[in-house]
Amino acid sequence: MNFNGIPAADAFALRSGVNCIVVGDAPCKHEDYAAALRMAPTAHVCILNDSKRDMDGIEEQMTVTMHGAVNNFIGTHRMPLSRISDDSTVISYVCGGDEHERVDAVYSCDSVWGTCALFGVLSAFYHGYDSVILAGCPMLGAYGSESKLGSWQPWLPHLIGRVSSLSGNTMKMFKEADRG
User: Fold this and answer.
1) Does 179 fall in a domain?
2) Pairing of strands 44-48, 89-93
3) 45-69 pLDDT, tens per residue?
4) Smaller CB count within 10 Å for the chain: N or C?
């Protein structure tokens, strides 16, 4: 299993001493984000797709999209590049397609994964974050289905004890995995 051409064990060995809050776009994101900040007030923030659009005052360190080329991302989410913080590292998962000057990194994986949240988590660890808190990533209804949780299974051994979630199916999955 590789992430961006690096064996998972090596990519997950990187550590910065900093935690990361990965913010998805489910309706629970505001409540989850507030709870995550109480848990880790100095954590950096990774925004998935356009989840920042109705969250004033967030200065993210990473913006992650799994919607192919950034031009597709901007079109799909109507995300103007001006809304992305100047210091935000923009990461895209590209399976071919055009590139954009605002993209800092294009990552790939051995297999196509099923969720933007998983891509955000893997990107955060690849960038050396110690742990991740998922906020607004419940994998429920329109915001991901329980069937897509299977894409997380191969990565779980690397994520247990380092990822937590504040809502939905991802919270249940990590609580059960932590219990062993």
Assistant:
1) no
2) unpaired
3) 988 877 877 888 888 887 777 655 4
4) C
